[in-house]
Amino acid sequence: MLAQLSLLFLFVSFVFRAALNPTDANVDALLGGVEKPRVLLLTAHPDDECMFFTPTLSSLLVSPSISKDTEKSNARRNAEVYSLCLSVGDAEGLGAIRRDELARSLDVLGVAESKRWVVDHPDLPDNITLSWDEQLVAETIRPYVLENKITTILTFDRKGVSSHPNHASLLRGAANSVASLPQTIARPRLFSLITVPVLHKYIGPFSAVLAKFDLVSGALLKRFGVQPPSNLPVFVSGVDEYKTALRAMKQHESQLVWFRWLYVSFSRYMWVNEWVEVSPSSAGRPPRTA
């Protein structure tokens, strides 16, 4: 009985510690090893930034004064984070309100006012039944990438996490934009946020526990000379980062309907972001089928 209680105590302690503290892995793979990384988060609608990307933003924008890892702190201090949202979210006629809500959310998340933009283009509407034209997306993104010397672009994958066609359009457009840049300049690398199966998508803080278990297992394998199965960039929030995501989401007052409260309570993306690098030449191709 005592042994069982001890095991239970160890398990509860592990879960608590896993949920309490943030962690990440393979961040250098995402930042690209450049001296001063310039990271652009490309989103479709106001509230995407806090509903899907807070674990990454919280890590990249971490204050050096609270980081226990000097090398990691220096990398974050050098990284500049930009935000580009391609619509004002005017599906219900609330575009002006949602633009202001996005600004307040990005204030909470720590993205500087001079490094964030919102596009309001008639051919890029917030529409759950419409895919955006990839050439238009590419042309819209290109000047922001060039003028700010962006080194890494982060956006949704082909599935868009929630299957929203506006989300899914961003990767193809970003890939088109990168591929069309002059070869005489350093082209930014492109990463997409991995859409996980539905069963993994809504397990709330347990997603942080499982992600940290995977990271610990990978570190142990490396110690014994075994290459772990994944070297993907991963960002895992702790309790404080989750609270930041909630505060950012609360800025989107017009969107706080009951099902979004369910989302922020149970979504994996409030806790974990996993990224995969995408080749611009293959981003527009449909996934292979067995």
UniProtKB/TrEMBL annotation:
Residues spanning the signal sequence: 1-25
Lineage top rank: taxon: Eukaryota
GO biological process: GPI anchor biosynthetic process
Entry annotated with the keyword Signal: yes
Key word Isomerase present: no
GO molecular function: N-acetylglucosaminylphosphatidylinositol deacetylase activity
Keywords, sorted A to Z: Signal
Broad EC category: hydrolase
Pfam families cross-referenced by the UniProt entry: PIG-L (PF02585)
InterPro entries with a match to the protein in the record: GlcNAc_PI_deacetylase-related, LmbE-like_dom_sf
UniProt-listed Enzyme Commission number(s): 3.5.1.89
GO cellular component terms, A-Z: endoplasmic reticulum; membrane
Protein name: N-acetylglucosaminylphosphatidylinositol deacetylase
Protein family per UniProt: Belongs to the PIGL family.
